[in-house]
Every structure is written in C-alpha cells, then in structure tokens.
Here is the input.
Amino acid sequence: MGSFPVTARNRVRRLSEKARYEEAAVFSVLDAGFVAHVGFIDRDRPVVIPMLYARDGGRLLLHGASKARIVRLLASETPVCANVTLVDGIVAARSAFNSSLNYRSAVVFGRARILEAEEQRMHALRALSEQVLPGRWDELRPPAPRELKMTAVIELSIESASAKIAEGPPQDEEEDYAIPIWAGVIPIASTLGNPEGDARVPPGVEPSPAILSLAGRRL
Here is the structure.
C-alpha cells in the first residue's frame, strides 16, 4: 500500500505529530468500525448523517432507503467528507488542559454516486453485511426484489484521506509530575458481547458459527 498525498484538504493541522497518511493506517481504522458520520452540503447548509458503511478497496459503500433525502443529494458525484472515530481510552492527566482521549480516527474525502447495476448493488450489500457480521450473508436468504427496490447503495470513492491516532499515557508539564495526584489512562473497550436470541427462535436452534465467532470481537 502507498500513502495519500498531503494536501490542504487532508492535512492534519492540530497535533500534526499524530497524523498518519499511509493507506494502511487509514484503512485499519475504517476496517475496525462500521458507522461513519457523512458530511455534505444541502441547500448551502452543512449536514452530517451517521451511516452504516463498508470499505471495499479504495472506496466506501453506504446504504439507505431509496427515498431518503440523502440518496437524492448524493446521487451525482456530490463532494462528501466522512469520518470514523473509535475511542480507546480516557487520558486523565495532572491538569484539565492535558487531559484528553486516546482514539483512532480517519477522515476521507471523495465524491459519491448511486450504484445502479444489480451486480454492483449485490456486491455492495454483501460487503456491508460482512463489515458488521462477517460470514452471515451466506447463512441468510437472498434479498427479495421488494427489499432491493427499497434500498439505495452509494459508492464514495476515496480521493484523499488522513488518520489521526492518539495513544499512550498523559503528557503533563514537567513541573506537574510533582503533584501528588493519580494520572493515567482509563481504557474504553468496544467489545461485542454474547448473542441473545429473540423470543421467536424455535427451540433447539442455536446461534450459527458466524454469530458465535463475533462474541469478544473488539472494534
């Protein structure tokens, strides 16, 4: 993998030492999550919408109801910015100023378009399913024509991107280390729990291998 060119659009200015422009760094953040906050302009006003996504190579795949406003707005090469942030810990420093968070964040820029061809749409829907529930697609019935008609799939080609990764203990002022107060990191772990069946699962039907494999997965 290469790196994204650093431009005025994707350059990290605040705490630039935490910036990463390698594709591997950006993609590792995108691959760990599945909800992106997607920003665009609607009637000269900024709008941010949380959306389920999947990374497929150098693009993000998004989906929504075919009649939703965002589908209409993103239908024709619309400029889009998307962010994914995963919070890993609270950094409790010896001063409020130096207290912060440990996190992994990626911001991508590109243009969106609607996928129309059925083969492309099915590939994208499978990728979206696999981002959240790896292996589950093959256990389920295929999407019904009515469901496909109700669902729009959006492709966001990643033209530019950057990641920002904060980790480690507090970075206090040298004179503050003499203050007799605890400082350190309180970890935050986003981990998938054990599956809980709904009330209409027939007796004797156990979670599938795809579902069982998710327990304990950390984002």
